[in-house]
Specification:
This protein folds into three domains: 3-86, Winged helix-like DNA-binding domain superfamily/Winged helix DNA-binding domain (Arc Repressor Mutant, subunit A); 93-160 and 264-291, Periplasmic binding protein-like II (D-Maltodextrin-Binding Protein, domain 2, 3-Layer(aba) Sandwich), CATH 3.40.190.10; 164-261, D-Maltodextrin-Binding Protein, domain 2 (3-Layer(aba) Sandwich), CATH 3.40.190.10. It is built from eleven helices and eleven strands. With 307 residues, it is of the alpha/beta class.
């Protein structure tokens, strides 16, 4: 399958129209049709069916699409690797991370990576879990650091680097308040956010019914400040509030049942040939994970993610 045919196939799949695909690719309509027919002849299956809303993918076309995207991405990576090799300059490593992880954990890991590979350059994007996973799956990011949640897209692989404890925090005055978590008001992120899922999962594991939500806030820093001001309590990764706890701005409150925790994971896209920069990262990550794992103990396994 020639990359040119795959590129045309993806353009038609995206636009659902041969004419618009041709305009996007700067090709005549007849050239687009010829290329689609050539690809269908090569595969021996129809890839599109015409309907009222335009062209739609057949089951065969739908199955081909992720492979076409993967093959074109791999071709781009091969071209970039060859160019970088000729110039003796490695391609930058495109990483993504949740803001909390980037601030608390990445500095030491990236410093170690630079010690191992002095010429390696890193581009870092800060985003939410959904955007990070989609970026890795689409090939826009080489890898991402985030917290485990749900089922992982089949295209992605992961490694658990740390098990991060969660802390129930409130204002310093809350130390004298013996109210159990079930009687407290919580400040939390919106439903669908990984930190909200941490709260819901921890409450379920501790046998608590859905927490009473006083406010939904999109920033962990803002949640911590509101908790310090007495607007409610919050269950957050301790790494996100460690500094406030040490300064006495927040108090850690007892949590019923098993200690709540979350798996910090590194996610990357499965492929036969890993770019050199990503291979270097994965090699270093094995040591980062082993450094916080008891001798002889198996690495903890995270549940797979959704796409």
């Amino acid at each position: 399958m020639h990359p040119r045919l795959l590129k045309t196939f993806l353009a038609v799949a995206r636009t659902r129209n041969v004419t618009r695909a041709g305009e996007a690719l700067h090709l005549a309509q007849s050239s687009v049709s010829d290329q689609i027919q050539a690809l269908e002849a090569d595969l021996g299956v129809p890839l599109f069916v015409r309907g009222r809303q335009g062209l739609s993918l057949t089951p065969a076309g739908d199955a081909l699409r992720p492979y076409a995207q993967e093959l074109l991405a791999l071709a781009d990576e091969a071209r970039a690797a060859a160019t970088a090799g000729a110039a003796l300059a490695p391609r930058p490593l495109a990483l993504g991370a949740l803001e909390t992880i980037a601030a608390a954990r990445l500095p030491q890991w990236l410093e170690d990576l630079r010690r191992r590979h002095a010429l390696l350059r890193v581009n870092l994007d800060i985003a939410g879990s959904g955007a990070l996973l989609q970026g890795v799956a689409d090939g826009m990011l080489d890898a991402a650091f985030c917290f485990a949640r749900g089922r992982l897209d089949a295209r992605l692989a992961h490694r658990v680097l740390r098990t991060e404890p969660l802390a129930l925090v409130g204002p310093p005055s809350a130390r004298a308040d013996a109210a159990p978590p079930s009687a407290r008001q919580f400040i939390a992120t919106q439903p669908g956010c990984v930190y909200r899922e941490m709260l819901d999962a921890a409450c379920a594991q501790a046998g608590l019914r859905g927490p009473a939500i006083a406010a939904e806030v999109g920033s962990l820093a803002a949640i911590a400040r509101l908790a310090a001001a007495g607007e409610g309590c919050a269950l957050l990764p301790r790494l996100a509030v460690q500094a406030q706890l040490e300064r006495g701005e927040l108090a850690e409150l007892p949590w019923p049942g098993p200690a709540a925790s979350a798996s910090l994971i590194l996610v990357w896209r499965r492929r036969r040939a890993q770019p050199p920069a990503l291979a270097n990262l994965l090699e270093a990550a094995r040591d980062w994970a082993a450094a916080v794992t008891p001798a002889g103990a198996p690495l903890p396994r995270a549940a797979p993610f959704p796409s």
